[in-house]
Amino acid sequence: MSKAVLIDTTKCIGCRGCQVACKSWNDLKGYKTAFSETWTNPVFLGNNDFTRVIFREATKPDGSLHWYFAKRQCMHCSDPACASVCPVGAMVKMPEGPVVYDDSKCIGCRYCMLACPFGIPKFEWEAALPLVRKCTFCAERQALGLAPACVATCPTGTLLFGERDTLVQEAQRRIRGAPGKYVNHVYGQNEAGGTSWLYLAGVGFGELGFNTQVPKEPLPPLTWNYISHIPHVIAGVIAFGVGTWYVTRRQELRPRPPAAPRPRPRVEKEDQP
Amino acid sequence: MKSREDIKIMTPSTKVLVAVMLLGLAVTFYRLGMGLGASTNLNDSFPWGLWLGVDVLGGVAMAAGGFIIASMIYLFHLEKYRPIVRPAILTAFIGYLLAIIALFLDIGQPHRLWHPAVFWQVQSVMWVVAIHVILYTTTLALEFSPMLFERLNMPGAVKTVHKIIVPVVLFGALLSVLHQSSLGAVFLIVPGKLSPLWYNPKLPFLFLVSAVMMGLAMVSLETNLSSRVFRHPVDPSIFTGLATISTWVIVFYLALKLFFLITGPGLAAAFNGSMEANMYLLEMIVGVVAPLGLMVGTKLKENPNGILAINILVIAGVLLNRMNVCIFGLYRANAATGRSYFPSWMEFAITAGLIALAIFIFKMAAKHLPLLSPDTGSAH
């Protein structure tokens, strides 16, 4: 069974306890950060942050201005583009849920960064031999039967850790149970073919800064559709090449007038004037 | 044969080449010592930039001439083009070596460049690309080897290569077809990011066809330039022959591009005045419409210098296409995550250094190897 987290952003108070817990547990370097215009901190997710809480101002349907908070991190897709594009298999989706990264294999090509529809993998640009960094879904804590550090820290119950199937049902139950409180969309249920991290929100996800253009189907089949046809291309090119070679060679071997003999290889005479 | 005494090494233009190469070498050391953040303007929003767009994607497309001309001689028996097969193969070999250097400098862990050969991941287009680079560079080395063996006076080795040359060329053509199209397939994974002006499921095929255009233009261009620089006469019918083939390929490419534009984002998307639309129009006018108009509508095609001008347009157009797919077509989606990108002077310096290196190697080969001498045609 695959683990997941449901984030009910309506419960988040923006305390950033999850950010602190994540830094502590993963031993990520602290650095001087800054606030964005709406008080998100840090302004960009970097290679020393696996998560951050987005602070956004948005207008509610009744016209009042509201401050919304949404914790962002790797979505841990069910069929992740980053894992499919990695040329050395450094990114792997575990059956338990986490998308993990083996930095001893990584060559630093950054195809995962290009491919990720959520813009999550970050690069150690400042290092001489940089690697990719992203949230691990605390795979090593999960292996010990513990919840991810951020979930264990959250004081308001915004983060709910459990089986993905159960959490999707729970999200739907909450939407049905409190009409008007939530928009009718569980972000992550179908995005990129489904993700292990699911979101509920009181306003449209676009207003919270989520990418709403993410395809609803898994991405890896797009490239696999090409790769799986390579054997056909091989057969086609070989058949065409050999066929043309055979046909044109027969034409060439036809008897010709002696005045125009076919030039023969004369390697031995190379040094003659 | 011996080295050609008439090709002088230290000409003024070669001095410029060497200066550009030395600057590139200095920046290379800086990049390897200090990392990508210190030397490039790449960032988390723009993980890929100039080196991948121009040096790798453009360089590999330029190298397509090698497999095209080799196939024309050894598979299609078009003997007319035999005098240009060696420069074409050498250009492809140099192109791939430079692409490998560019990849080596672009990846974060250059010392692990060999990892894809050991850690297989067949689901990854990038792995497919890596395997093709390894196999095809080896194949090109083999196709190139007779020039070296002749120079070293090893007729036995030349004969051995000659015996297996047809299957080797076929293998090389197969790898090239797959590699050129795979570079397009790299971008199939970003449907939400790459502008629909370029994104479509047949991107691999478009990359292949445009690489053929670029390869033919490169071979014609380099034959023209080297015949002047090295005072080596070339049968003009070779240029007109290549131009005729090229015209048909460009007509086919134009039809494909129009089909995908109309069935995809629609004709209006190319004329809405956005940055993407303008880049698309620029690419199409420079690389497709203008060359085609000049080939068909003027008498330029009748003389090698007219063809030279057309070839430069085609090469610039396909280079623009690669930059559009790798940089400009992705710009809006990447910039939406908060940052911008314009290459640093060091990125330009390394790109310029690699181009200078390519020209320098070609010149050295023309001087020291049986590349352009009149009797090369009978060598294998």
Give your account of this protein's structure.
The complex is a heterodimer of chains A (273) and B (380). Chain A is α+β, with helices and mostly antiparallel strands. Chain A has two domains: 3-218, Alpha-Beta Plaits; 220-254. Helix content of chain A is 28%, strand content 15%. Chain A is built from eight helices and nine strands. Chain A is elongated, with a radius of gyration of 28 Å. Chain A starts with a strand and ends in a 20-residue tail after the last helix. Mean pLDDT of chain A is 91; it is low at 266-273. Chain B is mainly α and 380 residues long. Chain B has one domain: Up-down Bundle (Formate dehydrogenase/DMSO reductase fold), CATH 1.20.1630. Chain B has 13 helices and no strands. In chain B, helix 3 (50-62) packs antiparallel against helix 12 (304-335) and helix 9 packs across helix 12 (304-335). The longest helix of chain B has 32 residues, at 304-335. Chain B is globular. Residues 374-380 of chain B have low confidence and may be disordered. Classes of the chains: A alpha+beta (273), B mainly alpha (380). Chains A and B meet through helix 2, helix 3, strand 6, helix 7 and helix 8 of A and helix 1, helix 2, helix 7 and helix 8 of B.
Write out key terms for the chains shown.
heterodimer, A: 273 residues, alpha+beta, Alpha-Beta Plaits, 2 domains, two-stranded antiparallel ribbon, 28% helix, 15% strand, disordered C terminus, B: 380 residues, mainly alpha, Formate dehydrogenase/DMSO reductase fold
Q: What's the topology here?
A:
The complex is a heterodimer of chains A (273) and B (380).
Chain A: E1 3-8, H1 17-26, E2 52-59, E3 65-72, H2 81-85, E4 91-93, E5 99-101, H3 111-115, E6 122-123, E7 132-133, H4 139-143, H5 149-153, E8 159-163, H6 164-177, E9 197-200, H7 220-227, H8 230-253
Parallel strand pairs in A: 1-9
Antiparallel strand pairs in A: 1-8, 2-3, 4-5, 6-7
Chain B: H1 12-34, H2 36-39, H3 50-62, H4 64-74, H5 85-106, H6 115-118, H7 125-151, H8 155-185, H9 203-229, H10 236-263, H11 275-297, H12 304-335, H13 345-368
Helix pairs in contact in B: 1-13, 3-5, 3-12, 3-13, 4-5, 4-8, 4-9, 5-7, 5-13, 7-8, 8-9, 9-10, 9-12, 10-11, 11-12
